[in-house]
Hints:
single chain, alpha+beta, Immunoglobulin-like, 2 domains, six-stranded mixed β-sheet, four-stranded mixed β-sheet, rod-shaped, binds copper (II) ion
Amino acid sequence: MEFGGDIFxxxxxxxxxxxxxxxxxxxxxxxxxxxxxxTSDGDLSGKRHHLRTQLDSLRHEMKRAGMDMEFEIEEEEDxxxxxxxxxxxxxxxxxxxxxxxxxxxxxxxxxxxxxYLCWISWAPTDAIWPSAYELEDAHEVGxxxxxxxxxxxxxxxxxxxxxxGVDSDTGxxxxxxxxxxxxxxxxxxxxxxxxxxxxxYGLTEDAVPGMxxxxxxxxxxxxxxxxxxxxxxxxxxxxxxxxxEIHT
Length: 248
Ligand SMILES: [Cu+2]
């Protein structure tokens, strides 16, 4: 298992993959356009010449067809200015250069990609907080906070799966749980807000009076771990500690 877990590793790889795709498309597109649509003074005179020749032949054709119309090319007045090849005017969108299909394409496709990336980014949320009711083979254990100690209720589980005792070294309450079993810790409080925190496992959740909240806990390493209170609850909040012991 990589740092951060498989889910985050998979997300990282997927995000890198799409970043590369988008990056390659964007830069190839930009570099291609930089060369293909490059203009220079030479191009400008070439274009003028081309346009004049076309106009001349058009005049000729119209004269032959008996149509009487006159038109001229508007010459740029200031030859010293940069040539305005595309005839772009300040404040006027060059609608003739518009391409609705392209606009829709590069609006809709990235939008779909963003929606997709948002969707897969929710995967860790789902994994961290699975619905306790969807878990099979999970054992329910009651954890109740009170100023300033923790009460555990094994709810009829065998002592191999769940046991409550006292730690001989520290005198703290010990909750013994089994390795690789999944537990639903049902949290509540008898007085004020508390928040059991299994420090080394990085798990915490509020214990709220009159309400049940849950921590889903699957111990994957044996040992003794502190269960602290992570919500300030009065004078002895700092000493509201128990031990969770994981055995095989
Ligand atoms: Cu507290």
